[in-house]
Design a protein that fits this description.
about 375 residues, alpha+beta, 8-stranded mixed sheet, two-stranded antiparallel ribbon, 10 strands, about 50% helix, elongated
Length: about 375
């Protein structure tokens, strides 16, 4: 969106032409693509970037920062922006002027929204729209059916997107409100888990692209459903790997074991290995960072097939919350004491087995623990 500050469309005193010509199509552009753009955006092209910035009352520098943060390429002097673009600039700038957001935070809002919706839009076009616009009759082209399909779907998808966003916003706000203090809103103690498909690189050399894509989609879908159903949060997927977080160790442990068990029952899936760590995590733009995340990743890389490795802090947290005994010997002593007193023995969901200490690149020597279900513990 970089343009000359004297951009076209402004007269001698710097004012913007109030009625820029709506017809700004490049002769080489596909007419259907332009019609679809107009339908989806709900407005026609009217402004160059300079005109849009002036109409919104913001500097070209700030407008360009917002535009790039949203994930869009520079468009030079092209008259390609609409009233909606002007309104978006005006709203973001207004939040800064009102003191509700700093300029840096407004740019982050633009970036996080752009990155999230870009992936959603790509998925909807690649996987959803293409299937719906298969020509229903011989002789018809996809272009002949695309426009009416989009016209019907657009308002419904828009409403659903807003609904899901509000639901997610409410859930996230609830987690923040429950934080103990202001510092916990950014740096929180969480359980972080990585789940990784074993031998995925070899699979990419043996499988057809479509078959590989179906496997990845099945893995991501199954993982996302299990994480959500058990009260965790899917942070991101990386093809053969998923990263999730949970507020407590018991939830993260249940998710990890369910992932391993579910994938093991699917003959089309490779083996899975999971690593989990517990500790302070920094959250930014929906992602998580810090030593805890790095440790979970390293534990995943050394975990046996179809197994879950956790760090010492995670094991201690399970013991503290009485989700796992400190040892089987301690569990046996507790059971004997309870029987002698005529009471029910404690029931633990998980078992922990200490493994050999080993050096982990960048993190020093760690003591992994093998996490399993404990006989009689069952699922939560």
């Amino acid at each position: 969106m970089t343009v000359d500050e004297t951009g076209s469309g402004a007269d001698g005193d710097g004012r913007v032409d109030p009625e820029p010509a709506p017809d700004s199509a490049d002769p080489g552009e596909d007419p259907l693509a332009l019609r679809l753009e107009g339908l989806i955006l709900g407005a026609e092209r009217r402004y160059t970037p300079f005109q849009a910035a002036r109409s919104a009352g913001v500097s070209m520098e700030l407008a360009s920062r917002f535009w790039r943060a949203m994930g869009f390429a520079d468009i030079g002097q092209a008259k390609a922006l609409t009233e909606a673009d002007v309104l978006a600039l005006r709203r973001l700038a207004g939040l800064v002027e009102a003191g509700l957001l700093s300029e840096a935070m407004a740019v982050q809002v633009a970036r996080s929204t752009g990155q999230t919706t870009a992936r959603l839009a790509e998925w909807q076009i690649d996987s959803f729209l293409e299937g719906l616009t298969e020509p229903p009759e011989p002789g018809m082209t996809r272009t002949e059916v695309t426009y009416p399909i989009v016209e019907l779907l657009l308002p419904e998808l828009q409403e659903f997107l807003v609904y899901v966003w509000r639901r997610q916003l409410a859930a996230s706000a609830g987690r923040v409100i429950q934080a103990g203090d202001d510092e916990e809103m950014v740096d929180r103690r969480l359980a972080v888990g990585f789940a990784d498909l074993v031998g995925f690189t070899r699979l990419t050399r043996r499988m057809e692209e479509e078959e590989l894509g179906e496997l990845v989609e099945a893995f991501e879908t199954t993982s996302a459903d299990l994480v959500a159903a058990r009260g965790g949060r899917l942070v991101k997927t990386l093809g053969d790997e998923v990263l999730y977080a949970a507020d407590d160790a018991g939830t993260a442990a249940e998710i990890a074991l369910l992932l391993v068990e579910t994938m093991a029952h699917d003959e089309t899936m490779p083996e899975l290995r999971v690593g989990i760590a517990f500790g302070t995590v920094t959250t930014r733009m929906g992602d998580v960072f810090g030593t805890t995340v790095n440790l979970a990743s390293r534990l995943t890389s050394i975990a046996p097939k179809d197994a879950v490795l956790v760090d010492t802090a995670f094991a201690e947290e399970l013991i503290r919350t009485r989700d796992a005994p400190a040892s089987e010997a301690a569990a046996a002593e507790e059971a004997a004491a309870a029987e002698k007193a005529g009471e029910e023995p404690p029931v633990y969901r998980f078992a922990l087995q200490p493994m050999w200490q080993r050096p982990v690149r960048g993190l020093g020597v760690v003591e992994p623990w093998l996490l399993t279900r404990r006989d009689g513990g069952g699922e939560s």
